[in-house]
Amino acid sequence: MKKLIAVLLSAVFAVCFGLTLVACGGGSDGSKEKIVFACNSGYLLDFQERIEEFNKIYPDIEVEIQAINAGSWGEMLQTISTDIASGVGPDIADIASEGMYVFAKSGLLEPLDPYIERDAEELTESLDAMDENLRNAHVIDGVTYSLPTVWNNMCIYYNKNVLDGAGLEYPQEGWTTQDFLEMCQKVAQNNTGGNNDIYGYAFYNAYFTTIEPWLCAFGASILNDDWSACTLNDEGAAEAWQFLYDLINTYEVSPKLGTSDVDLFVQNRLAFMGSGLWYVENLRNMDFPVEDYDVVPFPSKDGSLRSVIGVGGAPIFKNSEHKEAAWTLAKFLSGKKFQEEYLTESIWAIPAIESAADIIAQKEDIPDNAEIFYESASYGTYVPAPAQYTAIESEVLRDFGAYIAGINSLEESLSKAVENINLALVE
Amino acid sequence: MEKVKKAPASGKRLKRIEGVTGWLMITPALILFLGFVLYPAIRTFGLSFFDWDLLTDKEYVGFENFGKLFTDERLGTIIGNTLLLTAVSVVLKVALGFLLAYFVFRLQNKAGSVFMESAIFFPIIIPMSIISMVFVILFSTDTGAINGILYMIGLPKVPWLSSASMALWSVLIVDVWKGLGFFFIIYLVAIRNIPQSYLEAADIDGAGNAKKLFGIILPCVSATSLFLVINALITCLQLFEPVYLLTRGGPGDSSNVISYYIWSVAFQERDIGYGSVLALVLFVFVMLVTIAQFAISKFWVHYDE
Description:
The structure holds two protein chains of two kinds. Chain A is of the alpha/beta class. Chain A contains 19 helices and 13 strands. Chain A has helices spanning 2-24, 44-57, 73-85, 97-105, 113-118, 120-128, 132-135, 160-165, 177-187, 207-217, 235-249, 261-266, 278-285, 323-334, 336-342, 354-361, 371-379, 389-404, 410-426; strands spanning 33-40, 61-68, 92-93, 139-140, 143-144, 148-152, 155-159, 199-202, 270-275, 293-297, 308-313, 350-351, 381-382. In chain A, a hairpin with a 2-residue loop joins strand 4 (139-140) and strand 5. Chain A is globular and about 70 Å long. In chain B, strand 1 and strand 2 form a beta hairpin. The longest helix of chain B is centred in the first third of the chain and has 46 residues, at 2-47. Chain B starts with a helix and ends in an 8-residue tail after the last helix. By secondary structure, chain B is mainly alpha-helical. Chains A and B meet through helix 3 and helix 18 of A and helix 6 and helix 12 of B.
């Protein structure tokens, strides 16, 4: 009897164990080549749809999406770096400019030039449909580490209701930082410090969306052209930081740092906010009518066209055992046909293929001046993101925040930033 | 005689079985401790001797990372913030937790008591991430509800998260609001467990409420207080989530605390070696504070025999 019970128990355990293994295997039939694709969890649904389309064309490749919950590109890098250090890194990942250098310079990315050369004929149509500035975004020291997929720039969104209320004309391409300031002052001239104040411009302590675009507007940047030294001690940098400080503390046309710009905007309490294409999606989700706002390039000190751009790509990791399958996915994501058909619905970023961007710009629920998004590809400068990006971002945000809050003077903040960033670049 | 001979053997066997049972019962906790506490702690100690950025190979640098402790200009401010936050948070959580528990204990209305218990305990079950997101909205200087109310009653708006003088206190408010329920519920159970005969005897002797509070209730819950103080100290010294979600340690370093700084050094600056040294410093400090707490507890903690 005891033996019988033992045999029965063993059988039950064996079945349970077997079922568990099957469950862990995720139903893989073994004939497919499996690759792991890492992306930010915010884009999970978009990528799930894209991968479904990919699988219709390439049924032999099984793509497992590894969604990373990260609030910034810096955090995304930290997670992937930790995974790679633990030996469980992905085969391919959706990474923006902010992450490309660090992985490339660490020798973790597969150089793609041999693949591009081999598949040149197949790639010609897609590569020719991209702006050259985008095509070269991930060429580091002469080596291509990724084809561009999507990208973003920074422009100014303006609220027509607020400007109409203040009796102002809508801003035009070529406007200056002085024009911007005067319009902000006009909008906020009747403020009393109460709960219904109307502001000119609201901004965050953010690297890509605030600090670098405004430096760019004053002809400065966080780093020099080859990203080998910090240039925050330039005159333009001091002007830009002083300008932002004054918006809040001197002219009082901006709310305190970190106030939600989009919330004020939809309440018709904000004239301007800075963002890329993704705010169109935000405003759409908040039911703010597209007729009530439009977009214009960032103002600059001399009225010239300037923008900062960040370009996304899908690099392949060197330690991947499925590089060919990963390359197939990379080509698919940057492909003209795919971008025209599938990247025009979700508008969190601008497609690298110009014709796909044109399809978005011509839609009815897109602001009238939407063509400025793709136009900036030609004149935009890459967001400074060397291998030490996360440390530099952290330093810049700390020093900028300390200056705006009045903890440090302008000179102290900038010199501290220059000293520590240069130190990080050397290390 | 036979029975006398067998008795010690049976006792030994019983002891052995008890021993094995004891080990079996602590095995799950032991495995978790070894795998998720001791091993990472040893690894962290080892990593503190290396220069490592997570991506490239480690390089042995001896005590160089430890030397950074003496040249790090930010560390003083961050340790100061951590100690200030911990001291105020521990006092508030323990004092308010006890006062609320005592108030609910004395409440005659059962429905009111149940409502109070639920309301005060409720924040415990909400994840800190959600609480922080809500407080970011509430704390907004120009659009937040708190400042909206302050303005309506004629008070000036407070830059809760954007001012160097307020950011740390805003983190403290969220931490205390979220953590208070735990202190309250533990104190409430401890007060309710005080033998009724003690309080009745005090009543017969004509003791007033103050006498009962200071002469019976506080001494009877002193062991609970020791546990809660140690718990509060350890959790406050390791506070990370509200700092990360509300202020990111800013503006500047005005709300930066040691746990956030460890994360920032290790994973933002990718200096795993120095991050490990900072983690070891925190570990040693928490251990010393806990030992000190136990050492001085004999002067104020009363264990009911």
